DNA sequence: CCCGACAAAACACTCGATAATCCCGTTTCA
DNA sequence: TGAAACGGGATTATCGAGTGTTTTGTCGGG
């Protein structure tokens, strides 16, 4: 080993509390463990995550900048809410942007890119969407492979900020999808859609691939939108019941 | 006045120190008053902006999330540096993304959008690019009108996150442009380019407008790139001189 | 029964100080 | 001569207490 201690240590400074709690919060929001719209009280979180308030505020400021949380001046932070209108804009943007990145990727991708796409597609096909047959139970391996497949498709577009943007949109959309999957189950053949996109991409048919990808994202979006509507109705009922209970208790 | 105090107060809670210092820092970075790459020491900034360290760290965390600053674990924050490679990716992404948004805008824009574009273009044409004839002195009014023109072009694309993304890219690119303008002067006829874009947009020629816009952004990018090179050479010389001075002083 | 003023509690935000870590010039050893 | 250990000084990261704002709950009047 010719690397000195100074060189190896450069990168992995022990994670600071602020970033550690940032990562955990981020995941808890994306996975839906922290429901949309709820208050993020600094003291509570501080107790829950075992970190001081200063690091927590730092993490929250970061999340707010990313759009995963909302800051309200003098009134603290809340989890970004799951608004159908915002979601529609999100999906529309994804369709446009990912299709654009895919077209560019097809125009510029080399043989290595083709191989990566084909490999990612094969890996994805092997995995079951849900861990159980009857109802939906998220399969972490599938989620990972799914992410990898979509990333591989766009990887050759040679515009890092565009890629980063697509990834952020995907995470945000995935948050909605998580919420939706808690109450509904996608009936369509997602695997076939992925296969069709991969085929078009490898055929270098940019227009067809872009259109298919946009359609794929749109379908998922529509599915989530319906689930979201049901959720809203559900919550409305719950709120009514709770209100009734309060009245009854008096 | 029929509005109660409760209603009017809701929005404008007096700016918290954290956000106030965030805005100031942000501007100082974008305007180039804080040079790329320099360290952002919490204590110094705390003294300079007259705020505590906690709000400052919050602001810095936010800026880091936006990409205007870099956080290095256990080693504080630095201003994002002006790297030619990153800049190239930025420009490429802008060309792709703004052209996309413009095409969408043209496809969806109504009469009000047309009017807004035409008006913004006229306002821009009236203003001089530089306050002095011989050398470049930034004209705030022109900068504002320029921003407004480009925003008006994309306004009808009906994809809020896409618009927000374009705006962020523009700000980042403008930071580079500020640095470049400090040492060079654009020789081409920027006004004519704007006019051509507006004309194509109002003609509803999406392809031509998109191409012209991409070309416009690319030219500006090329200009900045050259200036950046000169800047690098300049800094190299300065560093050499400083080094020589140190040696001479011994 | 509803509405608005009022007081108390909860909470966000801020500050100053302390602990942990890094940086850099110096010394020590092979 | 060069590389590794070492310390003083600077800087980051963190904590706990204090201040001001918002929210909640209560009470009297419409």
UniProtKB/TrEMBL annotation, chains A, B:
<dbReference type="InterPro" id="IPR036390">
    <property type="entry name" value="WH_DNA-bd_sf"/>
</dbReference>
<keyword id="KW-0238">DNA-binding</keyword>
<protein>
    <submittedName>
        <fullName>FCD domain-containing protein</fullName>
    </submittedName>
</protein>
<dbReference type="GO" id="GO:0003700">
    <property type="term" value="F:DNA-binding transcription factor activity"/>
</dbReference>
<keyword id="KW-0804">Transcription</keyword>
<dbReference type="InterPro" id="IPR011711">
    <property type="entry name" value="GntR_C"/>
</dbReference>
<dbReference type="InterPro" id="IPR036388">
    <property type="entry name" value="WH-like_DNA-bd_sf"/>
</dbReference>
<dbReference type="Pfam" id="PF00392">
    <property type="entry name" value="GntR"/>
</dbReference>
<keyword id="KW-0805">Transcription regulation</keyword>
<dbReference type="GO" id="GO:0003677">
    <property type="term" value="F:DNA binding"/>
</dbReference>
<dbReference type="InterPro" id="IPR008920">
    <property type="entry name" value="TF_FadR/GntR_C"/>
</dbReference>
<dbReference type="Pfam" id="PF07729">
    <property type="entry name" value="FCD"/>
</dbReference>
<dbReference type="InterPro" id="IPR000524">
    <property type="entry name" value="Tscrpt_reg_HTH_GntR"/>
</dbReference>
<feature type="domain" description="HTH gntR-type">
    <location>
        <begin position="15"/>
        <end position="82"/>
    </location>
</feature>
């Amino acid at each position: 080993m010719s690397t000195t201690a100074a060189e190896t240590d450069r990168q992995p400074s022990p994670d600071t509390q602020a970033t550690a709690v940032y990562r955990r919060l981020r995941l808890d929001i994306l996975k839906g463990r922290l429901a949309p719209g709820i208050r993020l009280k600094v003291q509570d979180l501080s107790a829950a995550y075992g970190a001081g308030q200063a690091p927590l505020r730092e993490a929250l400021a970061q999340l707010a900048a990313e759009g995963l949380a909302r800051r309200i001046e003098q009134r603290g932070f809340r989890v970004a809410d799951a608004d159908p209108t915002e979601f529609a804009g999100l999906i529309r943007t994804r369709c446009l942007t990912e299709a654009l990145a895919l077209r560019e990727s097809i125009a510029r991708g080399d043989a290595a890119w083709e191989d990566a796409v084909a490999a990612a597609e094969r890996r994805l096909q092997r995995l079951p969407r849900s861990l159980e047959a009857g109802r939906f139970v998220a399969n972490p391996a599938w989620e990972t492979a799914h992410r990898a497949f979509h990333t591989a498709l766009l990887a050759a577009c040679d515009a890092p900020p565009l890629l980063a943007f697509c990834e952020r949109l995907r995470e945000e959309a995935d948050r909605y999808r998580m919420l939706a999957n808690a109450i509904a189950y996608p009936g369509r053949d997602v695997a076939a859609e992925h296969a069709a996109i991969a085929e078009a991409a490898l055929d270098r048919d940019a227009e067809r691939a872009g259109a298919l990808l946009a359609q794929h994202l749109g379908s998922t979006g529509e599915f989530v939108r319906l689930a979201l509507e049901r959720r809203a109705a559900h919550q409305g009922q719950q709120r009514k019941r709770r209100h009734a209970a309060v009245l009854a208790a008096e």
